[in-house]
Write a structure and sequence with these properties.
Oligomer: single chain
Structural class: mainly alpha
CATH topology of the largest domain: Growth Hormone, Chain: A
Radius of gyration: 22 Å
Mean pLDDT: 83
Number of domains: 3
């Protein structure tokens, strides 16, 4: 459900905007608000699980997600449509954030050490499949029923999840750690202020008198939030882990990859729907080369990592491929001919899928066993935050290039969509440079093998 709702909305955006009379800015906010709530509340989900236990937090997240999905699907047209939909999407993201960290921890606790790796691999594989199926399933639901079905389908799904959870024999354990309110509330406020102000610049422009004060104030809020967490005895996010260079560089590259991937997916779907005049189903099917290649790149990453025994080589292969594919796809958009986009969609998707698994393995292998739980929450938070940052920045560029008349009509012109792809290409190029300079050359396993005594190799 969590991964479907990150991608499923991309295809439903245009029909939703037509039905509810949303402008272009509101269309982008529908995606941004969900990812923002998800990224800023992941740490809250981890903290709540340590206070109340895994099962109560997971159930609460599932119920919130279902209720918010129902509110999204039942949003009435009219002046209140935009605020109602955005509020429901925010709660939907918060519910997803309660489920996401709990799911991984629950699987870790439910399996013995020998089976844990296979279980987590199966979990990640199933999640990737649903990420790929998101645009297609959203297209089918929208074409056969309505864009509202994209959200309403979550209600019976949550019912099945809760029933299955009630039948399980999972033992709940609540350490009873204190739950803090100030840190998460302040962090959510700071991140929301920063990302929404970055997005709003697209409507205001850099010359507007409100731009500098609003952006400066949001940066101050973020700085104060970071300072509070650093000084806290029980920080919401253990930022001290970023002192580990390998972890910090890996999480920064992951952030940049997510910042490129989300705008390409969302604006690619809107371009196919509006500029090529495809049906919702046609748009979903047309995105399959990109999302399928993304999944293929994810699975190929482990093979390359084992073959090269080099983190940097694996990540750079993916980033170079993604950068070239995104740049070529950007150039192909101006031709408004779908067949010329397919090879570059495959190239961009395959390249974007390759770095994340290798980076995840590097991040978790670079920290001590005692720090892995905190490192996992920090990694998940910054990864999701990268997607929110990408949607905000790409959306601002699209709004600035689109023109007031097109923005008001909820239409994104082809030349404006190109801005989002160019942004993604630049971000991928930056990730490529960072990885080339700062990532370690060898995987942890290769370094251990090289440092092992010669006698061990003979034996």
């Amino acid at each position: 459900m969590v991964l479907l709702d990150e991608t499923v909305v991309a295809v439903a955006l245009d029909p939703m905007a037509r039905d509810l009379d949303l402008n272009t800015a509101a269309m982008n906010r529908v995606v941004l608000v969900y990812v923002l709530a998800l990224s800023s509340c992941v740490a809250v989900g981890g903290m709540a699980a340590r206070r109340y236990g895994l099962l109560p937090v997971f159930r609460a997240g599932a119920v919130i997600f279902a209720l918010a999905s129902g509110c999204c699907g039942l949003t009435p047209p009219g002046p209140a449509a935009e605020p109602c939909l955005l509020a429901a999407r925010a709660f939907q993201g918060a519910g997803a954030a309660l489920m996401l960290p709990v799911a991984t921890t629950a699987i870790t606790h439910a399996y013995v050490a020998d089976e844990r790796g296979k279980a987590l691999t199966a979990y990640a594989g199933v999640a990737q499949i649903f990420f790929v199926l998101g645009p297609l399933s959203g297209a089918l639901l929208t074409q056969l029923f309505s864009w509202r079905a994209v959200f309403l389908i979550n209600i019976p799904t949550v019912g099945v999840v809760l029933w299955a959870l009630a039948k399980s024999r999972f033992r709940n354990h609540a350490p009873g750690e204190p739950f803090q309110v100030f840190q998460p509330a302040f962090m959510v406020l700071a991140l929301a202020a920063l990302l929404l102000s970055l997005y709003q610049i697209g409507s205001w422009g850099l010359e507007d008198a409100r731009t500098v004060p609003v952006l400066s104030s949001s940066l101050v809020l973020v700085a104060v939030s970071v300072w509070v967490m650093i000084r806290a005895a029980r920080p919401l996010l253990h930022l001290r882990i970023l002192k580990n260079r390998t972890f910090a560089v890996s999480v920064a590259v992951t952030f940049l990859v997510q910042a490129a991937q989300f705008p390409v997916l969302v604006h690619g779907a809107v371009f196919l729907r509006q500029s090529l005049h495809l049906t919702p189903l046609g748009s979903g099917v047309s995105l399959l080369p990109f999302v399928s290649a993304l999944a293929a790149g994810t699975f190929a990453s482990g093979y390359l990592l084992e073959s090269f025994r080099s983190i940097r080589m694996t990540v750079l292969c993916g980033l170079v491929t993604a950068t070239l594919g995104t740049a070529a796809w950007s150039a192909a958009l101006s031709r408004a001919d779908y067949q010329w986009q397919i090879p570059w969609m495959v190239l961009a998707g395959f390249g974007m899928g390759m770095p994340i698994p290798a980076l995840s393995a590097t991040m978790m292998g670079s920290v001590s066993v005692d720090d892995r739980a905190d490192a996992s929450v920090l990694r998940q938070t910054l990864r999701q935050l990268g997607g929110a940052f990408g949607i905000a920045m790409a959306g601002a560029l699209v709004l600035a290039a689109n023109g007031q008349r097109s923005n008001a009509a909820g239409i994104i012109k082809a030349e404006a969509s190109v801005r989002a792809f160019v942004f993604a290409g630049v971000v991928l190029g930056a990730a490529c440079a960072l990885a080339a300079i700062r990532l370690p050359r060898e995987s942890g396993r290769a370094r251990k093998s090289r440092s092992a005594p010669a006698g061990n190799h003979r034996r």
